[in-house]
Structures are given as structure tokens and as C-alpha cells.
Design goal:
Length: 160
């Protein structure tokens, strides 16, 4: 009989992801999968079984098309008339970490589990982070994709 993993027995790792030159949405989907634990064989939809993720160089993330000028980030102070919006161009200049967090938050469950998962995401706009003591493992979420494209190129070259 198989046993379900419980909330008290997760094997959590710390993963370090460099966002330099990555497209925001594609990076956010990979981070959300790691935070949820969907890349593990013990994935359970209602439990928090994912790893911690440290994202560095958030200021160097890319947006495609005209999203920098057209896409807007919204927030509300809680007071009457406190609704504020800012373009992603301005947001990336001032708080690029918020852009990455917002993208990942939108891909997580909208409930208590999602709020718990987002706390495992640590985003920093520069190359340094304070989580050296946790010994995060450098992780490239696009490694398999890159290997596939290289294999396709090699096959095309052989076919010619």
C-alpha cells in the first residue's frame, strides 16, 4: 500500500535560478512548477511539497513584444482613491523583483496553499543573495529545452 507524503516529511532543497536574459513568463512557469513540487514523484495537489527557489538577476529578465510599454502592474493602498498603476517599464526600473513575484504568484493556486508556496520564493534584482548558508544548487530550468533544440539542429545538419 502506498503512503501519501505528509506535510511533516518534505525533503526540501534550495535551488538557485539566474534570470539573466530569460523571458518573464517562461521563467515564471518553471519556477511555479518547482514551488508546487510538480517535478517530484511525490507530488500531491493539496500539499506543499516543493523546493525553495532563489532567483537572482531579476533586473535582467526580458519581456517580449511591447509589454514593457503596454502591460501595467496594479496595486491598491486600501484607502479610497488608492488605486495605482505603473507600466512594466517603470516597474522593471524600480522593483524588478516585484515583476517576477507577480508573474509567479499568478501561476500558483489562489488559496492558502498558494500563499504558503509564494513564501518559498526569494527574488533579488542583483547577482547577490543572503541565502549562501542554505547552499542553493544552481539550477537551469531550460536545460532540457536547450538539449532538445541542439539535437534537432544536429539531425537537420546530418540530413543535409
Amino acid at each position: 500500500m502506498a503512503t501519501n507524503p505528509t506535510a511533516t516529511t518534505p525533503a526540501r532543497r534550495w535551488r538557485l535560478i539566474d534570470a539573466d536574459g530569460r523571458i518573464l513568463g517562461r521563467l515564471a512557469t518553471r519556477i511555479a512548477v518547482i514551488l508546487r513540487g510538480k517535478d517530484k514523484p511525490t507530488f500531491t495537489p493539496y500539499l506543499d511539497g516543493g523546493d525553495f527557489v532563489v532567483v537572482i538577476n531579476a533586473a535582467k529578465v526580458r519581456l517580449t513584444g511591447r509589454k514593457l510599454q503596454q502591460k501595467r502592474a496594479y496595486r491598491h493602498s486600501g484607502y479610497a482613491g488608492g488605486f495605482r498603476s505603473v507600466t512594466y517599464e517603470r516597474l522593471m526600473q524600480t522593483h524588478p523583483d516585484r515583476a517576477v513575484e507577480a508573474a509567479v504568484r499568478g501561476m500558483l493556486p489562489k488559496n492558502a496553499l498558494g500563499r504558503r508556496l509564494i513564501r518559498k520564493l526569494k527574488v533579488y534584482k542583483g547577482p547577490t543573495h543572503p541565502h549562501v548558508a542554505q547552499k542553493p544548487v544552481v539550477f537551469d530550468p531550460f536545460r532540457n529545452e536547450r538539449e532538445k533544440t541542439e539535437a534537432k539542429r544536429a539531425l537537420r545538419a546530418l540530413a543535409k
